[in-house]
Amino acid sequence: MENQEKKPVIYSGIQPTGVITIGNYFGAVKNWTQLPEQYDCYYSIVDLHSITVRQEPKKLRENTKNLLAFYIAAGLDPKQNILYLQSSVRQHAELAWILNCFTYMGELSRMTQFKDKSQKHGENINAGLFTYPVLMAADILLYQTDLVPIGDDQKQHLELARDIAIRLNNEYSGLFKVPEAYYGKVGARIKSLQEPEKKMSKSDENVNAFISVLDEPAQIRNKIKRAVTDSLGEVNYTDDQPGVKNLLDIYICSTKETKEQALEKFAGQGYGYLKEETANALIAELEPIQKEFARIVADKAYLEEILKENGQKAAYNAEKTLRKVKKKVGFLEI
Ligand code: TYM
User: Fold this and answer.
1) Which residue, among 99, 119, 251, 224, has the nearest Cα to 172 in the 3D structure?
2) For ligand 1, atom 1, which residue shows the shortest CA distance?
3) Hey, whose CA ends up nearest to atom 7 of ligand 1?
4) What is the pLDDT of residues 299-313, one digit of tens each?
C-alpha cells in the first residue's frame, strides 16, 4: 500500500453540509479533476469539521454519501484519488490535539470565518468552531502535503497551517512539509447572485443567491435571470461591476473560453444575452455530472466500499506522520 515512488501530494476537502454549490465546484472540485497525474491526491469529506455547526445525523449521513457521489460524478476516479471520510481516520483528531498546543488563541481569534460563523450561530459558539483551523492544519500536514487546491475563502486557514508547520519544524526540525495554496485561473471566488460583493455560500438564507450543482435547468435559468447586475448596461470584467464580473466568471468556468474571448463575445451585448448564455453554458457543464451523480448515488454498497478502502489507505499514510510527531514531542513509544 505504501507509495513506492514519492510523488508530490495534493490535499483538499469539503464539508458535507447542505447543498454543493457551483462555488465548491468551480473553486475546488473542478480544479482537482484537472490537476496533472503526477500527484498523490487526497480528497476528504470533512465530517469532523461539519459538526462545528449542529447537524441532523440522518441528513449528515445523506450529505456525506451525496458528496462522495458528486466527487466521482465530477470526474475524480476513486482508484486514482484517495476519496475518504475524515472521521474514519482517527489520526486527524489526534494530530489536531497536538497542534492545538502549538497554536495561539490570538491567531485563532483573528480568523474571519470564526468571526462570521460565531456571529451567525451566536447560540452555539463552541470550542470546535474556534479550533476549526487547527483541525484543517492537521488534515493537511498529516499527509506531508505540497499543494492545497482551495477557493479564496480558505486562504487565511491555509496560511495558519503553514505557520503551524513552520513553528513545529523550528522546534523539532523536519517534521512537516510546508504546504502551498493552489488556486484555479478563475472561479476561486464565485459570488452570491443576490449580493455579488459576498461569496456564494450554501448557508445563504436566500436560495436565489446560490446555485446547487444539482439544480434543475429551469432553476438555474431562473436564478441567473434574477441575478443582481447594475445599471451601466455594458459587459466589462471589473470589480466596479461585481454582478457582471461574477456572471462572466461563471460563464468562463463553464466553457473553455478565456476571459478575452468571453469579453469579445459579449461586447456591445446587453445583460439579457449575458445571462442567457451563462445559464446555457452552466446547464451544459452540469448536465453530464448530474446524470452520473444520479447513477452513482443509488449504489450505496459501492460508495461504502470506496470509503472503507480509501480510508484505510489514508490512515496508513497518516500514521507515518503521526508516529513521527509523537516521538519528536517526547511521547514514550509503547
Ligand atoms: P467548504 O466546505 O466551505 O468549501 C469547500 C471548497 O469550496 C471552496 N468554495 C468556494 N470557492 C469559490 N467560490 C465560492 N463561493 C466558494 N465557496 C466555497 C472553498 O474554498 C473550499 O476549497 N475548511 C474547508 C474544508 C477543509 C479543507 C481541509 C480544505 C477542511 N480541511 C484541508 C482544504 C484542506 C471548508 O470549510 O471548505
Assistant:
1) 99
2) 14
3) 24
4) 999 999 999 999 999
